[in-house]
Amino acid sequence: MKSNLLHLHRRPALYCLMLGISSVFAQQPPARQAPAPGAQNRPPATTPPATPAAPQAPTPPQPIAPTPNPVRPQSPQNLSEPLPGLTFEEAVQFADGQEEFRHVETPATGLGPIFNDVSCVACHNAGGTGGAGRSTVTRFGRTTDGVFDPLESLGGSLLQARSINPAVRETVPAVANTVARRITTPLFGAGLIEAIPDNTITAGLLRPKPRGITGKVSIVTDVVSGQNRVGRFGWKAQQATLLAFSADAYRNEMGITNRFFPTENAPNGNAALLARFKTTSDPEDKIDPADGKGDVDRAADYMRLLAPPPQNGLSASALAGQRFFATLDCAACHTPTMTTGRSAIAALSGKTVNLYSDLLLHDMDSLGDGIAQGTAGPREMRTAPLWGVSVRPLWLHDGRARTIDDAVRAHDGEARDSRDRYTLLSATERRQLLDFLDAL
Ligand code: HEC
Ligand code: HEC
Hints:
The protein is α+β, with helices and mostly antiparallel strands. It has 13 helices and 12 strands. The strands form 5 sheets. Strands 2, 3, 4 and 6 form a 4-stranded antiparallel beta sheet that branches. Strands 1-5 form a two-stranded antiparallel sheet. It has a two-stranded antiparallel sheet with strand order 7-8.
């Protein structure tokens, strides 16, 4: 929820834009993001669950700090630039949206009662506001004879690991026998990915593929339009649009209900406990009468207008590596290029998108995360887009890979043959392929 004060905060953005210094503004540290000294009151993840106690009054809200993030202060590189060619009005939306993306929520603005972090940027920060990150979230469920049950009545499948009061904190229920971590994905160029027509992604299925590689389109009901759409965002391609993902993240990562997700998550499904600790009324994200937008819309604007990672020229070594990318069939899943359809935003209309993903789900066998979500089965994962891959702090869905080489070696399932041939490259050839990936 946004206070009117935010309007005042927004003025510097507008001012800088008028002076044509949006990127300078973008690099300023967010004023309200700095945790107060001594405010690192995040309970350790291993603290035993609070025993459901007798009813008690909520304790007064305390300052809640973002998850301490051990990410090296990222390379001087700042990728959070607006798309080239925005209109003045779109540039203002970008700046306003960035401010919202960095805004630290508090219990007074609707944070919690259960949540995972206090702002979008608290997790999405590697290489700039909206990047990947080291933060992971936990999904749980119960798998019986290969069938995954998300344990919705017990608060699954997404765990909210923090709470505004220890008495409401969620835990992984004892009946869960499948627990997976998911690492934060980057948002650079997300508007271009959103603008790829559904049928372009579906057509990728029909392209002839090397033996053993198939793929599956993720079909999801878009909560914004109510229509069946091709999912493309998230490790499971579980959302089709940025507004839907934004609304989902506001409710499920921060506990801020909104017009698309108007109901608060009850801690481990316990509605009585929720009622005792909830002090704000739903939906917590209010529409600003001035422009008809809520926080969910502004964060979506930001992601939509964010430039893709810059792709510079290829060195001789990277050029050699590009050949292996093709001959090892990496490109069979990591489709180098797609084209956006028509968009009301000229900067997104008919553009080439060098994303290096087919946006399809693939059976990755042992690399699957065991969680079924939407169309995606437990072993199926979305082909990770590889643009900007060198700017991720860790790789693969749970961050298990500390290097890009590790990430390729962990491929399995439909990618097994491709991976095996990768391991057979000479050290020089492998270096060349990795140099190519570094340049994306
Ligand atoms: C607690 C950390 C955390 C917070 C807070 C958070 N995210 Fe994320 N975000 C993630 C993780 C983890 C993923 C991957 C989730 C998955 O696929 O299951 C993700 C994925 C996404 C994606 C999908 C991108 C893609 O194509 O893979 C979008 C869009 C997104 N987040 C937007 C937001 C917005 C907007 C906010 C603020 C309202 C936000 N996130 C807050 C951790 C976070
Ligand atoms: C069958 C499809 C398929 C093939 C073939 C394939 N990949 Fe992947 N790749 C994926 C999927 C799916 C993921 C996401 C896996 C996960 O973590 O769940 C991925 C992830 C990655 C990542 C990590 C990205 C990140 O953000 O963490 C890298 C790097 C990568 N692939 C490189 C390659 C290279 C190099 C090759 C060729 C040797 C290759 N891939 C072949 C499907 C494929």
